[in-house]
């Protein structure tokens, strides 16, 4: 039987797109406490099919497909620009196709403005009206209002008119940044992308016995299974080590590992890989917020996913990508040594004009990863990093980074990294990395 939390989520998911949602209304309809209703609405917001907007309320929006994540809804635009909705609230759930800057003559502006667009413009009432008639939404910059007739038209065509105190350039930058951030998120692999779903997962119940484990072990060849209760909540994990030397009639909840490590659907694959390596775990149950089993992931699933993602072209560049792309190996270096160079650019400095600690850490980590890969193919997870010291390094300085492998084994590596500027030692660190075999 579904929990109250799940019943509320199912109810919200079944509401029409654009419907207004309130804690009190949900609590009354489903006969639950307002606290339970509030938590479920927040979960729906996290899952991307509800949006809360100041001075408007909470509305049901269209759930985004993963491949279309770079598109924003008008509700999200309101939040991004700290806007106020002047009219057309019923259209806030709709998706923005593209935005147009209204810095041209009216006729030219309308040639670029079509259905699903967002016209960013100042206090030009004629442009507001024509954009709405063309099926576009309007974002008025500079904190200006618009005519009542325009607000009425917005309500009729169900396309929002939004006002923001920011100027046009700032607004365009903010929206571009939001789209860019979502492009980066799109590239990050989550557990939900690679899991074996629950209907394909072999699991055991708390009332089962060791004889049931033996039966599933013979049928599947696997030795690790999640153990769930009647509501499908994960209560434990049972492995061959747990049942060793036990009678076949012993209940699993007497021998299983209770409160096992689990991951959520939105846990990143990289984070799961680190957890598996660090704890020496081969298989993890995947659960939702109510701790209900959603499926499993294995170490093999995680490694395959990480290898695939490394072969994909990057669309949105992260700060780490920007830093590491400028880290290049020097031509004049002693044979058998890896020495890298890096030019400290203005955006890589702190408020004092010296190299940022975060940039230094990224340089050290990436150089250590590169030198370890020359010893052993595979994926790496930094387990421990000790930074002994960092001296101030000015803008435009040319750094030389010397990573040196101290020790490398089958499953770990230790690297000493020294950083020089004009022949002087300005930083030193020691890293220990876990090595993940690609088998």
Automatic annotation (TrEMBL):
SUPFAM superfamilies: CBS-domain pair (SSF54631), HprK N-terminal domain-like (SSF75138), Thioesterase/thiol ester dehydrase-isomerase (SSF54637), Winged helix' DNA-binding domain (SSF46785). Gene3D superfamilies: CBS-domain, Hotdog Thioesterase, HprK N-terminal domain-like, Winged helix-like DNA-binding domain superfamily/Winged helix DNA-binding domain. The keyword Transcription does not apply. Keywords: CBS domain. Residues 195-254, 256-314 form the CBS domain. The keyword Chaperone does not apply. This is CBS domain-containing protein. It comes from Peribacillus psychrosaccharolyticus (Bacillus psychrosaccharolyticus). The lineage of its organism: Bacteria, Bacillati, Bacillota, Bacilli, Bacillales.
């Amino acid at each position: 039987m579904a929990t109250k939390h799940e019943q509320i989520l199912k109810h919200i998911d079944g509401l029409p797109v654009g419907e207004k949602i309130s804690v009190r209304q949900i609590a009354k309809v489903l006969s639950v406490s307002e606290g339970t209703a509030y938590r479920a609405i927040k979960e729906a917001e996290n899952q991307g099919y509800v949006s809360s907007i100041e001075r408007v309320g909470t509305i049901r929006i269209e759930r985004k497909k993963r491949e279309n994540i770079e598109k924003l809804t008008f509700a999200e635009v309101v939040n991004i620009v700290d806007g106020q909705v002047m009219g057309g609230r019923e259209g806030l759930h709709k998706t923005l196709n593209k935005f147009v800057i209204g810095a041209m003559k009216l006729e030219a502006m309308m040639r670029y403005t079509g259905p699903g667009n967002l016209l960013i413009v100042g206090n030009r009432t004629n442009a507001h009206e024509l954009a709405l008639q063309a099926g576009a939404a309007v974002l008025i910059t500079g904190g200006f209002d618009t005519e009542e007739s325009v607000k009425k038209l917005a309500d009729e065509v169900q396309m929002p008119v939004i006002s923001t105190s920011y100027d046009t350039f700032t607004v365009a930058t903010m929206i571009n940044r939001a789209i860019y951030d979502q492009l980066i998120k799109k590239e990050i692999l989550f557990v939900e992308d690679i899991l074996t779903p629950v209907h394909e997962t072999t699991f055991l119940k708390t009332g089962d016995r060791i004889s049931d484990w033996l039966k599933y072990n013979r049928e599947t060849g696997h030795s690790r299974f999640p153990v769930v209760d009647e509501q499908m909540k994960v209560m434990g994990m049972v492995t061959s080590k747990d049942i060793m030397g036990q009678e076949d009639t012993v209940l699993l909840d007497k021998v299983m590992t209770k409160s096992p490590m689990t991951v959520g659907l939105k846990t990143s694959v990289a984070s799961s890989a680190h957890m598996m390596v660090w704890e020496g775990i081969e298989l993890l149950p995947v659960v939702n917020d109510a701790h209900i089993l959603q499926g499993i992931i294995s170490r093999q699933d995680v490694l395959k996913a990480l290898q695939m993602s490394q072969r994909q072209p990057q669309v949105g560049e992260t700060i780490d990508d920007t830093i590491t792309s400028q880290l290049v190996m020097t031509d004049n270096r002693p044979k058998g040594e890896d020495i890298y160079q890096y030019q400290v650019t203005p955006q890589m400095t702190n408020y004092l004009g010296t190299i940022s600690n975060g940039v230094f850490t990224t340089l050290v980590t990436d150089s250590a990863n590169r030198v370890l890969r020359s010893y052993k193919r595979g994926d790496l997870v930094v387990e421990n990093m000790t930074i002994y010291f960092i001296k101030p390094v000015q803008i435009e300085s040319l750094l030389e980074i010397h990573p040196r492998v101290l020790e490398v084994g089958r499953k770990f590596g230790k690297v000493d990294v020294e950083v020089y500027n004009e022949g002087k030692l300005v930083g030193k660190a020691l890293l220990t990395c876990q090595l993940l075999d690609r088998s």
